[in-house]
Amino acid sequence: MSKPPKLSLASIVAASSPSPQRSSGEVVQLPTASQPQGVTARGTLKERSKQLSVYLEPSVHDQLRDIAYTERTKIHQLMLESLDLLFKARGALSINQLTQQR
User: Fold this and answer.
1) CA distances from 29 to 11, 60, 73, 89 (A)
2) Would you say residue 89 lies in a domain?
3) Is 38 contained in some domain?
């Protein structure tokens, strides 16, 4: 008993193409989707923000992770909260005030 022939992507596309006029080497242009939900004209948070690395002792990281788990939140949110407390203690603008100025 022989094996069935392996299918190639070109043969699958050619078989599913309703138009017999298309050749197998032609590029098909698909309509572009609108912007994904949550993406504004300013871009996503990842696109407009700066990344900051923080080195923590393992015990400090474990405690932070435990707090995030207990409060059912993310470490990122806790870090932002801590930054707001630092800014308040130093008399600086909060994160909300800084982002509203933009």
Assistant:
1) 18, 52, 42, 56
2) yes
3) no
